[in-house]
Amino acid sequence: MSLTDTAIRNLKPSDKPRKHADAEGLYLLVNPNGSKLWRMKFRYGGKEKTLSFGAYPATTLKHARALRDEAKTSLARAIDPSVTAKIEKAQRLAGGNSFKEIAEELLTKKEAEGKAVATMKNKRFYLRFASADLGSRPIDDIKAPEILITLRKLEKREKLATAGRVRAVIGEVFRYAIATGRAESDPTGALRGAIKAAKPKHQSAITDEKNFGDLLRAIDAYEGRGEGVKVALQLMALLYPRPGELRQAEWKEFDLDKAIWTIPASRAKMRRDHKKPLPPQAIAIIKGMQC
Q1: What separation in angstroms does the CA of 25 have from each of 57, 82, 242?
Q2: Confidence class for position 46, pLDDT limits 50, 70, 90
Q3: pLDDT at position 290, please?
Q4: Quick check: keyword DNA-binding in the entry (predicted)?
Q5: How far apart are CA 110 and CA 116, in angstroms?
Q6: From CA 116, how far away is CA 22, in angstroms rounded?
Q7: pLDDT of amino acid 206
Q8: Ranges in the chain annotated CATH 3.30.160.390
Q9: pLDDT reported for residue 68
Q10: Is the pLDDT reported for residue 94 higher than 70?
Q11: What's the pLDDT at 92?
Q12: Which of 140, 151, 208, 276 counts the most CB atoms within 10 A of its CB?
């Protein structure tokens, strides 16, 4: 026998949770604490599952039956209604659905993960180009041709490398939107090859032993702009760190007894402590600075 509002109001809690059936899998679960919760039992993929429709009386009998009917329609289309419910919940929790709002969420997430300040600065820089055209648009309405308009503006200015990075960061935003249930697909994949490719600029390098020796001797003979510059050049040649790692190095990072330089995670590229062995030449240079 189906439930009625009168019957539901008269249901009393007992010492155990009790199920009171309505129809077609819908039932009301009455807990010992007096709460009355709507549930629907169904089978999908050979497994028994349960959907939650909220508490009575906030969710009325009529509303609960309507939600049950929606779930049955999904099942008729071979769609698992529990997955649909999870996606809808993720969308509610996620916040806004404009490109700019989702981009800001993604940046906040990356900052919380400890991404380097320089990395975040670059991402914000590239996203500014996208947000100027796409910022207020609902992300699931944005298609590849709209993104191409933004990239074409950079292409016309011969900012080809920038255009490639803007496409990449737009793709990051779309993938985050997909993960949080606010977009169905990433249109940036369709834009590969749509604009001119940037020509790589090869940086000159000394690969000949004699010429490299000449460079080291020139550094040793350097007398300009203070002793610190000369020491930095010598250590760069011996230790090949990233320039910022050496420029911001502190004495406490060097263990000369163990011949180890520990670059802290806050400055290391991979965001973890990075240890570099110190050759005797480097140790001699560092000790010379301490004198």
Answers
A1: 19, 14, 64
A2: confident
A3: 78
A4: yes
A5: 9
A6: 56
A7: 86
A8: 5-93
A9: 94
A10: no
A11: 60
A12: 151
How much is the pTM?
Answer: 0.55
5-93 architecture in CATH? 2-Layer Sandwich (3.30)
Dihedral (CA of 271, 273, 279, 283) sign: positive
Q: Under CATH, which architecture does the 99-191 domain have?
A: Orthogonal Bundle (1.10)
Q: What amino acid occupies position 165?
A: R
Of the listed ranges 93-97, 155-159, 244-248, the one predicted with least confidence: 93-97
Q: Spell 32-63 as b/e; 16+ CB within 10 A means b.
A: eeeebbbbbebeeeeeeeebebeebeebebee
3-state SS string over the chain?
A: CCCCHHHHHCCCCCCCCEEEECCCCEEEEECCCCCEEEEEEEEECCEEEEEEEEEECCCCHHHHHHHHHHHHHHHHCCCCHHHHHHHHHHHHHHCCCEHHHHHHHHHHHHHHCCCCHHHHHHHHHHHHHHHHHHCCCEHHHCCHHHHHHHHHHHHHCCCHHHHHHHHHHHHHHHHHHHHCCCCCCCHHHHHCCCCCCCCCCCCCCCCCHHHHHHHHHHHHCCCCCCHHHHHHHHHHHHHCCCHHHHHCCCHHHEECCCCEEEECCCCCCCCCCEEEECCHHHHHHHHHHHC
Q: How many residues does the chain have?
A: 291
Q: Does the structure show a pLDDT above 80 at 95?
A: no
Task: Give the strand pairing for 254-255 and 47-56.
Answer: unpaired
